């Protein structure tokens, strides 16, 4: 499950269709928003992502430049990763733990700029911090300390970790992308600014510079696997054109609905692909 901030509502729509049609997998991996939203697939909470994002999108502690200035995180760490799942829209940790599907996420080690993969079996303790780390965008989030290391957004180092699952032995993989076919990531226009705000972490700055080439190579590899028939891809048919900071619940609903439609259009092909 690819990231992309609020493009992740597309993924939320896809996984809700999966849940409604009893589509199950042995394993999964999410990156950034793909992890933060995708964990609801393992907890089997149909509609939860759309519900809480629409409810809180206008609250400054959820996502705002005020949150960034006050806390250092554009998505408020305490509100998003503790207040919402623990109190306001409770995450079903028991179902998450009892679901046999393996759930991995990826974060980027700020000292090396390399991806680190974490198998999330629980929703307590460091697991929440791993989830937060995977979605902590460089320049807009504080690094997340876990153990003796610090981490940022997993998409910086591995945006589409298909090869990770393949090396784990998964042979038939479904890839949910949040960019349309043919999308090419260009060099970051904000790279000089990002270099400035990440100057304490040169490995992150280097990874951000290399990210477009990495991302484009990964999408090419996904397409190669898709053409060979070993991968089924669900992607938007056109750019989603949604910002990272969204105040309009209708925009969230629009992108979610596009994800649902993309999944519904692929449903019979998906069932044949998975032999279910």
Outline the structure in words.
There is one protein chain. The longest helix is centred in the C-terminal third of the chain and has 27 residues, at 202-228. The protein contains eleven helices and seven strands. The mean pLDDT is 96. With 276 residues, the chain is an alpha/beta fold.
Keywords:
276 residues, alpha/beta, five-stranded mixed beta sheet, two-stranded parallel sheet, globular
Q: State the total count of DSSP E strands.
A: 7
Low-pLDDT runs: none
From the helix content, strand content and strand pairing, which structural class follows?
Answer: alpha/beta
The gyration radius over C-alpha positions equals: 17 Å
In short:
The chain has 276 residues and is an alpha/beta fold. The chain contains eleven helices and seven strands.
Compile the SSE list and pairings:
Blueprint: H1 8-20, E1 27-31, H2 33-42, H3 48-56, H4 65-71, H5 77-88, H6 93-98, E2 102-109, E3 115-119, H7 126-134, E4 144-146, E5 149-153, H8 162-167, E6 173-176, H9 191-197, H10 202-228, E7 231-234, H11 249-274
Parallel strand pairs: 1-2, 6-7
Antiparallel strand pairs: 2-3, 2-5, 4-5
């Amino acid at each position: 499950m690819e990231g992309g901030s609020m493009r992740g509502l597309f993924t939320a729509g896809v996984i809700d269709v999966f849940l409604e049609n009893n589509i199950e997998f042995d394993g999964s991996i999410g990156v950034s928003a793909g992890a933060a939203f995708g964990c609801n697939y393992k907890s089997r909470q149909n509609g939860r992502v759309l519900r809480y994002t629409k409810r809180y999108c206008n609250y400054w502690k959820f996502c705002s430049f005020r949150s960034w200035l006050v806390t250092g995180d554009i998505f408020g760490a305490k509100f998003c990763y503790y207040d919402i799942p623990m109190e306001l829209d409770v995450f079903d940790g028991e179902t998450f733990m009892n679901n046999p599907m393996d759930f991995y996420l990826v974060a980027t080690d700020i000292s090396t700029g390399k991806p680190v993969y974490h198998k999330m079996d629980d929703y307590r303790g460091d697991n929440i911090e791993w989830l937060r780390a995977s979605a902590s965008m460089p320049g807009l989030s504080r690094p997340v300390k876990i153990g003796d290391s610090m981490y940022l957004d997993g998409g910086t180092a591995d945006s589409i970790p298909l090869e990770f699952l393949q090396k784990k032995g998964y042979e038939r993989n479904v890839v949910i992308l949040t960019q349309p076919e043919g999308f090419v990531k260009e060099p970051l226009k904000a790279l000089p600014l990002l270099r400035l705000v990440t100057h304490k972490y040169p490995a992150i700055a280097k990874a951000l510079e290399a990210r477009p080439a990495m991302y484009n190579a990964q999408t090419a590899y996904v397409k190669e696997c898709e053409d060979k028939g070993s991968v089924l891809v669900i992607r938007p048919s056109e750019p989603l054109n949604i910002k990272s900071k969204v105040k309009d619940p209708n925009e969230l609903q629009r992108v979610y609905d596009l994800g649902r439609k993309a999944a519904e259009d692929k449903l019979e092909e998906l069932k044949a692909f998975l032999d279910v």
